[in-house]
Automatic annotation (TrEMBL):
Keywords: Hydrolase. It comes from the Bacteria. PANTHER family: BETA-UREIDOPROPIONASE, NITRILASE C965.09-RELATED. One of its GO terms (molecular function) is hydrolase activity. InterPro entries: Aliph_Amidase/BUP, C-N_Hydrolase, C-N_Hydrolase_sf. This is Carbon-nitrogen hydrolase. Residues 2-264 form the CN hydrolase domain.
Length: 294
């Protein structure tokens, strides 16, 4: 990684139609580049409304190949602005085979690498198993001109194993494009517990691995197709340092760019005083490969 990088998380609504969403993302990338960003992270599936609120085969028409049309556009945007971009795209890999895929564009417009979402939820309002096949690329950091990026996607952010495997493979920052929100009918206390847990677990990944974390969520209410329910995406995007310290954060309504300077030496310094990787007892962790210890 460069000695320091300026990271930017774009917190934006994604419920205004594909052309408008993409145009807005592009305008935010250009604005971030003008403020000297090296890396711009967009929310999960930022091109479209969150279609996974229902199971509808017509939504497969939203998918596209990777590389494909959006990749061509974002590659040019990356090259024009000399900035790295992390985008997530509904990937059509083959007939009947689809993934939720992060694509990393380097500053010269090339595709540095991809990551396919590994953990796929299936909960009320989040019917992702209907649409996405679990990823098959493993937990491998993506080599870029600014360093090794440990890109994961949304539901992956709850799993310490995913973060740890990225760290063990040499990731220098953990990146989580996200689409997560509340059921508006939940009590305010429950909503706060959910949001606090989401922030806490990701800060824990930063602490446990001595790495900065970039978490980028969307905002805004998106109704379900029957209009009876919907999701209020809670924003609260943040960037944390390698001790879990919050470097910058947003609330649940702000449409904004979050910036933070990440110093690779800080990760080195933290790992020297908290040598968790050194003290791991790898010879006694075999049971982690079991579903449950009966």
């Amino acid at each position: 990684m460069k000695k320091t990088i300026i990271a930017c998380a774009v917190q934006q609504p994604c419920n205004r139609g594909r052309e408008t969403n993409l145009a807005y993302s592009i305008s935010q990338i250009a604005a971030a580049a003008k403020q000297n960003a090296d890396l711009v992270v967009l929310p999960e599936l930022h091109l479209d409304h969150y279609f996974c609120q229902s199971e509808d085969t017509a939504c497969f028409d939203l998918a596209q190949p990777v590389p494909g049309p959006t990749c061509e556009v974002l590659a040019q945007v990356a090259a024009d602005n000399k900035v790295m971009i992390v985008s997530t795209i509904f990937e059509r890999r083959a007939p009947g085979l689809y993934h939720n895929t992060a694509v990393v564009f380097d500053k010269d417009g090339s595709i540095a690498g991809t990551f396919r979402k590994m953990h796929i939820p299936d909960d009320p309002g989040f019917y992702e198993k209907f649409y996405f096949t679990p990823g098959d690329l493993g937990f491998r950091p993506i080599e870029t001109s600014i360093g090794k990026l440990g890109v994961l996607i949304c539901w992956d952010q709850w799993y310490p194993e995913a973060a740890r495997l990225m760290a063990l493979a040499g990731a220098e920052v953990l990146i989580y494009p996200t689409a997560i929100g509340w059921d508006p009918s939940d009590a305010a206390e429950e909503q706060q517990r959910q949001r606090d847990a989401w922030v806490t677990v990701q800060r824990g990944h930063a602490v446990a691995n001595g790495l900065p974390v970039i978490s980028c969520n969307r905002i805004g209410f998106e109704p379900a197709p029957d209009q009876a329910q919907g999701i209020q995406f809670w924003g609260n995007s943040f960037i944390a340092g390698p001790q879990g310290e919050i470097l910058t954060s947003a609330d649940d309504k702000q449409d904004l760019l979050l910036f933070a300077e990440l110093d690779v030496q800080r990760s080195e310094d933290v790992r020297r005083i908290w040598p968790f990787l050194r003290d791991r007892r790898i010879e006694v962790y075999q049971d982690l490969l079991r579903r449950y210890i009966d």
